[in-house]
Design a protein that fits this description.
single chain, 118 residues, Rossmann fold
Amino acid sequence: MARVLIVDDAAFMRISIKSMLTKNGYEIVGEAENGLVGVEKFKELKPDIVTMDITMPEMNGLDALREIMKIDPTAKVIMVSAMGQEAMVRDAIISGAKGFIVKPFKEEGIVSALKKLG
């Protein structure tokens, strides 16, 4: 099953996503509390999929997404954010995100979004 890196500044959200994905057969290879750490862990761990929050300290999710796409243009990054504004979604997709999940989400929502990535 796919190896996933979870990037979110809220520890409870990382725990929640990890629990939902692990239960559905995904391997969580790492977690990061901001975009800067997320980019470093992406380089180090080379995950199959990244779940990326948008609003975070140090480096936000959109900037981290752009950095990850420079490292690997084929990276599979799904944005996970409470901010479902159209401009954010458009920026994320234009920058290379493969999907967008709006918080709060149900387990089947995030699992089906990841399944679409293969």
